[in-house]
Design brief:
The chain is an all-alpha fold. Helices cover 78% and strands 0% of the residues. Helix 8 runs antiparallel to helix 18 and helix 17 runs antiparallel to helix 19.
C-alpha cells in the first residue's frame, strides 16, 4: 500500500470518526489525497467526477421510487396491506408476528427501503403485538428483522444503486434478489412458528370466511399493483428502471388522491419536500462516492485487491467467504448505500476476476449488507424499532439473535448455491 493510498483511507476514516457527514468525509479525503500527491490538476477532475456520478439516467429512478414510497406512506395504504396479511397469515399460532413478516414482504414490494418498513409497519405492529401479550423486545425484533426483506424484494433502491455503480443490469439484479428475499421471509416465519409453539403465542382472531378474505384481497389489490407494474415493466423489457419509477410514483399519486382520497392536495408539498430531501442526501453521497472511487482507482486498488485474492488460491467458496466477511464487517459500521458506492465496483471487479458471476455476487452483497442493519454499532433498523418499542437495546439484541442467525444461514445458502439467485434471471432471459 502506497503512502498516498494510506493517507486517503486514514483521512476518510478519521473524518468519519470525527463526525463529519459521509459525503463530505469522502470529498475532503479526496482533496487531502490530491494535496499529498501534488497533482493539483486533479481538482477539476474530482469535481467533474462528482457531477458524473450523479448525472445518470438510471439514478433518476432513485427519487422516483422514493416518491412512490412517500405517497404510499402518506396515503395510509399500509392498513389495507395489514388486513390482507391478517387474512392470509393470521390463522397460524403466533399469527400477529407472522402477519408482521408477511406484511413486510408485501410492503417491501412497494417501497424497497428497510427503514420505510419500520416507519410505517412498526408503528402498527409493535403496539398491537404488545397488546396481544408479546414482549416489547420480541415485537421490535420481529419488525426489525423482517424489515431487511425490503431491500431484497423489488423494487429495491439499493439494487438500483448497486447496478448503476457496478455496471450490472438492474432488471436482472432485481430478479436475482427476489427469490432470496422471499426465502428470508419464509425462514423467519418458520422460526416464528417454532417459537410460537414453544411460547404458546396467540392466533389472530378475525372473520376468515371466503367473503371476508375476498374483501381484504380486493382492498389490497390496487396498491399491490405497484410492484406488479414495476416488475412487469422492467423484467418484460417494456420500461427502464427510471420509467418504472415514474409510473409507480404516478400510480401511487392517483390512487392516493383520486381513488382513496387519503392525501389532500395541501399535503403534497410535504410529500414532495421529504422525497426531495431524502433524494438529495442520497445522491450527494453517490456523487462524492464516485470521486472517492475514482481516487482509489487511480491508486490501482481494484487490481491490488483482485491480485491479492487470486494469489491466495482460495477457489470459489474460499473467495466468496472472504468477500462475505469483508462485507459483513463493512455493513456493521457503514450503511449499505455508502458501502456499495465506495466498494461495490471494486469488490465486483475482484469477484469477477475470481470467477464469481457478477449478478450472483451483487445478490450476495445486497443480502450481506442488509444484515448490517441488524447489528451494532450501526444497526439502524434495530435503533428505529427500539425507539418505537422503548424496550432497551440489550433485550432487543437477545430477541433479535435467533432471527439474525437464521438470516445468516440463508446468506450462506445463497452464497454457496448461485442457482438460487441466477435461476429467475435466466428464465427471464437476462
Amino acid at each position: 500500500m502506497t503512502l498516498s493510498l494510506s493517507i486517503l483511507l486514514i483521512s476518510f476514516m478519521g473524518l468519519i470518526l470525527a463526525g463529519l457527514p459521509i459525503a463530505w468525509a469522502m470529498m475532503a479525503s479526496v482533496l487531502i489525497w490530491i494535496g499529498v500527491t501534488g497533482n493539483w490538476y486533479f481538482l477539476p477532475i474530482a469535481s467533474e467526477r462528482v457531477y458524473q456520478g450523479m448525472d445518470s439516467f438510471v439514478l433518476m429512478a432513485v427519487p422516483l421510487f422514493i416518491l412512490a414510497g412517500e405517497m404510499v406512506n402518506a396515503g395510509k395504504i399500509t392498513d389495507r396491506l395489514v388486513n390482507f396479511a391478517n387474512a392470509i397469515f393470521g390463522w397460524m399460532r403466533g399469527g400477529l408476528a407472522q402477519v408482521n413478516v408477511g406484511a413486510s414482504i408485501l410492503f417491501s414490494g412497494i417501497t424497497g427501503v428497510a427503514l420505510g418498513d419500520i416507519a410505517s409497519l412498526g408503528r402498527v405492529f409493535i403496539p398491537a403485538m404488545i397488546r396481544q401479550g408479546y414482549t416489547p423486545a420480541y415485537a421490535a425484533a420481529v419488525t426489525a428483522s423482517s424489515s431487511i426483506i425490503g431491500p431484497m424484494v423489488p423494487p429495491s433502491l439499493i439494487a438500483v444503486i448497486y447496478g448503476s455503480m457496478a455496471d450490472v443490469s438492474i432488471g436482472a439484479l432485481m430478479a436475482a434478489t427476489l427469490i432470496p428475499g422471499l426465502l428470508i421471509g419464509v425462514i423467519q416465519m418458520g422460526l416464528i412458528a417454532v417459537q410460537a409453539r414453544y411460547y404458546n403465542f396467540p392466533r389472530v382472531e378475525m372473520d376468515r370466511s371466503p367473503r371476508a378474505i375476498g374483501v381484504a384481497t380486493g382492498h389490497a389489490l390496487v396498491p399491490l399493483m405497484i410492484p406488479v407494474i414495476i416488475l412487469t415493466g422492467m423484467l418484460g423489457g417494456i420500461m427502464t428502471p427510471t420509467e418504472a419509477g415514474g409510473v409507480a410514483a404516478a400510480y401511487a399519486l392517483v390512487i392516493s388522491i383520486v381513488l382513496y382520497r387519503s392525501i389532500r392536495l395541501s399535503a403534497l408539498a410535504d410529500v414532495f419536500s421529504r422525497s426531495a430531501l431524502f433524494s438529495g442526501q442520497l445522491l450527494i453521497i453517490v456523487g462524492c462516492g464516485a470521486a472517492f472511487s475514482w481516487a482509489m482507482g487511480m491508486e490501482n486498488v481494484p487490481q491490488l485487491v483482485g491480485a491479492t485474492v487470486e494469489s491466495w488460491g482460495l477457489g470459489y467458496l474460499g473467495t466468496m467467504l472472504v468477500f462475505n466477511l469483508i462485507l459483513l464487517v463493512l455493513g456493521m459500521v457503514i450503511d449499505p448505500t455508502t458501502v456499495i458506492i465506495l466498494f461495490g465496483p471494486l469488490l465486483s471487479l475482484a469477484a469477477t476476476r475470481a470467477g464469481i458471476d457478477p449478478l450472483h455476487f451483487g445478490t450476495v452483497a445486497i443480502l450481506n449488507l442488509n444484515v448490517g442493519l441488524l447489528t451494532p454499532p450501526l444497526g439502524v433498523c434495530l435503533f428505529a424499532a427500539e425507539k418505537i418499542a422503548g424496550c432497551g437495546l440489550w433485550p432487543l439484541l437477545r430477541s433479535t439473535a435467533p432471527f439474525l442467525l437464521v438470516t445468516l444461514c440463508m446468506l450462506v445458502v445463497v452464497a454457496a448455491f448461485p442457482e438460487i439467485s441466477l435461476w429467475l434471471p435466466g428464465i427471464l432471459g437476462f
